[in-house]
């Protein structure tokens, strides 16, 4: 979840005459978080959203400051507009990017903040224009809840690259009201950003697919890396990494897990089905593996050198960055030039890719490795996540939790 990209948003969004509707923040509010109700009051998208005067109340767990501690928080949701889906949240996965946001690691967090963007829930109500979803169906919501619908990426169905995309939390809708995420009783989401969960997929299993799963699936699909027989590397065996192993193996790839120690070797080979395990600090093993991989999915969320991993790639190999890192990464150019190698990145996936990935996951009979917890454990879960003490994804049982305390 690369939220630093928001800093580049144009000042078009700012209505500097008023900050009454801006989310509370102990730091100066960036221009794109300032109220835009006046500017957008005649916008068709604004008109389609539920009325500001007709709101309903819900309860979520919010961070109030960079300590990142979550506690119950009551706030308003708009009423169901013509294109909206009103959802009762059942489960929500915990992503490492949630940790970045509640801790203000990127310097742009707004509080109170209800995180959570791997949301599985039940449809309670739909707007008059909604035909794809019905009351009682199980649906999912990921990282996005809005986009401009007019730019090149939107017109090409890759709305995750829209410069005016709206995040499911720590952002604002076009009316200036803050978005809040899935660690909550209910959500209102525009139908475009809702996906149907295929029958037969357990909802708690499906939750991590809405970010971690599609984050891996999208670049493999886009870069033509779905054919059988490829040799791939998964750097970092966390929430995204374990999805990478499962999806790459389902495509028929030979998969090497690359880690800084041998602590996860047994899990990678025996539980996840990886073909090979490579310890990056083992210089001899790294040298023997040089020029052997078609691609590497780099999921490491902290600064790290790139040269050791570039050396593992074949001619025309791709190092695909996935981790959210707030410090510069460095490499020497010959490492790329002499093998015509690529360092690239990818950001979650489109709504179409999410639906495709869910069907693929069901067809292949895959399963996530998760630990289900209740909401009253969420602060402990974040502490453990920060220490990499989870195998491999926490999922909060929101429906089974007492949210008001």
TrEMBL record:
SUPFAM superfamilies: GroES-like (SSF50129), NAD(P)-binding Rossmann-fold domains (SSF51735). Pfam families: ADH_N, ADH_zinc_N. Keywords: Metal-binding, Oxidoreductase, Zinc. It comes from the Eukaryota. Residues 68-396 form the Enoyl reductase (ER) domain. CDD domains: CAD1. Belongs to the zinc-containing alcohol dehydrogenase family. This is Enoyl reductase (ER) domain-containing protein. It comes from Vigna angularis var. angularis. The gene is Vigan.08G044900.
